[in-house]
Amino acid sequence: MAKRIDVKDLNIYYGKFHAVENVTLSVPPRSVTAFIGPSGCGKSTVLRSLNRMHEVIPGARVDGSVLLDGADIYGAGVDPVEVRRTIGMVFQRPNPFPTMSIRDNVVAGLRLAGTKNRQQLDEVCERSLRGANLWEEVKDRLNKPGGGLSGGQQQRLCIARAIAVQPDVLLMDEPCSALDPISTLAIEDLITELKQDFTIVIVTHNMQQAARVSDQTAFFNLHGVGQPGRLVEIDETSRIFSNPSQRATEDYISGRFG
Amino acid sequence: MFRGLALGSGGFVVALIAAIGIFLLLQALPSLQANQVSFLTSGEWTTGDPNDMRFGILYLLWVTVATAAFALVLAMPVALGIALFLTQYAPRALARVFAYIIDLLAAVPSIIFGLWGLQVLGPALVPTAEWLNTNLGWFPLFSDGNVSIRGGGTIFTAGIVLAVMILPIITAITREIFERTPKDQIEGALALGATRWEVIRTTVLPFGRAGYVSGSMLGLGRALGETVALYLILSGASGRAPELSLFDGDATIASKIANDAAEFNNEISAGAYIAAGLVLFVLTFVVNALARWITTSRTGK
What's the CATH number where B166 sits? Predict the structure, then answer.
């Protein structure tokens, strides 16, 4: 549980298009790292390459290495399905499986991994829903479809689904951008709690959010249209937002562009 | 104004269907009254003499339902497989060509299918049919029927030809609905560590199930009403009662009507066939209603 990530010289391509150039960064275990930057700078692309979700798009590929506690997830013979089982992901729009009940949604990952024991599934279901601060709200309707919940509840359901399999890392791709401020606050509180157990990487458009929830912040930018995105700097969040070492970072967080 | 137009066209369709139903009923009634046997429980069919009408739908209904159901049983899994292959496994370029070929199958006139079934497939299937009959004859569907297996004019042959004919429609509808599986659903499953087949099971199939079922029901509707191909393939009246086997023959409701159309020399005789048509009309109606019911009750809303 809670492994560290080391990204080395990562280059990401969509077909011939060079999307992201030479990213090198480290994420310590049990911490929150935020990726910020203007639209199209490749922060989501980098996030999706951390659990090999990037390559499901036809023509997409990756150069370089992503080490999970020293083991390269792009190494020869590594099965992307196994990688995704140990690195969970939460998406921008809540995406519970609409035909499944709340309970089945939470344990979907476990079922895929072959767990059939009913008692064990129920235990994991409760623990995960409690972990996602959703248990009290849904405990009386676990057999109702997940699609009937509010947007914020659905997103917490997706977080419960992701943590049910006890992943080493939790990736979040703008998890609050489709939510109202109160639901956003609930998710942010949850992220701070989840940090005790998981390594978390979150992409966000909201700089205040990055400042609130993260321990370190990575700023991505691009030089121009059609140019690949690149990592400008990564540092402790307090320093990025008070005294960044790069001029571009300061311009971005002070609202001069982006 | 547009509301009026929409209401008008909607009303027109309903009125048209009702009119067809009423027409069939009115034309059939005199013959049904002249009928000497029970229309619903008899299988006899002698309609030459208006004063001694003996006709019942039973045998025709059996052949109609059995052929269509057999075709559906054959076509549904194949269509599902093709749709899954085209949307989930095949490279895009190949999928496009393949889908086009499947659609072409729908454009082949049914008389061609009939000729093919009569001249090529029927004879070619005889060894298989005989093998099934000899070795699995204890199973009621493979037991001796009321026509010669060697002749090929059986429900068995007709069902297989029909299966090919309804394959494109089921495939096309299933493929279209599978393609519309929301991308975020698929990604959600992938991110949980689902293999390609597991992604299909957790997202594509639940999402597309209703479409698959209604596509299949459309196929069934087509199979029930198919006329020309079956008219060519099925052997004419054997006079014997069917054995509830796939090696029964005779005719479906539609092929019987087509076969005997030349003999409609008086209103009472014709009415017998119109009564049969009415049964077919109701049958397709029921199938469609069933499809609707399955679609709405399983979507889960």
Answer: 1.10.3720.10
Q: Among A82, A88, A100, select the one facing B191 at the smallest CB separation.
A: A88
Q: Residue A233: helix, strand or coil by DSSP?
A: strand
Convert the pLDDT of each residue in A130-181 to its tens digit.
Answer: 989 899 999 999 999 988 899 999 999 999 999 999 999 999 999 998 888 8
pLDDT single digits (tens) B214-255: 899 989 988 998 888 998 888 766 667 888 888 888 889 999
Q: Is A81 on the interface with B (CB under 8 A)?
A: yes
Nearest CA in chain A to B202: A97
The reported pTM is: 0.83
Which chain A residues are within 8 Å of B96, Cβ to Cβ? none
Check CB contact of A79 with chain B, cutoff 8 Å: no
Residues in contact with A177: Cβ distance below 8 Å, sequence separation at least 6, in sequence order: A92, A204, A205, A206
Give the contacts of A68 (CB within 8 A, at least 6 positions apart): A3, A4, A5, A86, A87, A168, A169
- DSSP letters spanning A17-33: EEEEEEEEEEE-SS-EE
Cα–Cα–Cα angle for B13, B18, B21, nearest 5°? 130
A245 to chain B, minimum CA–CA distance in Å? 35
The CA distance from B166 to the nearest CA of chain A, in Å, is 29
Residue B294 lies in domain: 2-299
Domain count, chain B: 1
User: What residues contact A35, with CB distance under 8 A and at least 6 apart?
Assistant: A43, A44, A46, A47, A201, A202, A203, A204, A217, A218, A220
Interchain contact A59–B (C-beta under 8 A):
no
One-letter identity of residue A191: I
Chain B interface disruption, residue of A44, A89, A95, A104, most B CBs within 10 A = A95
Enter the ipTM: 0.88
CA atoms of B268 and B28, how far apart (whole Å): 8
For position B156, what pLDDT does the model report? 93
Residue of A nearest to B300 (CA): A99
**Mind telling me how many Å the CA of B91 is from chain A's nearest CA?**
10
CA separation for the pair B258, B251 (Å, rounded)? 10
CB contact at 8 A, A157 and A101: no
Q: What is the pLDDT of residues A206-250, one digit of tens each?
A: 899 999 999 999 999 987 777 889 999 999 999 999 999 999 999
- Residue A57: count of CB within 10 angstroms of its CB: 12
Q: For B271-296, how does the pLDDT look when each residue is reduced to its tens digit (9 = 90+)?
A: 999 999 999 999 988 888 887 787 77
Q: What is the pLDDT of residue A44?
A: 92
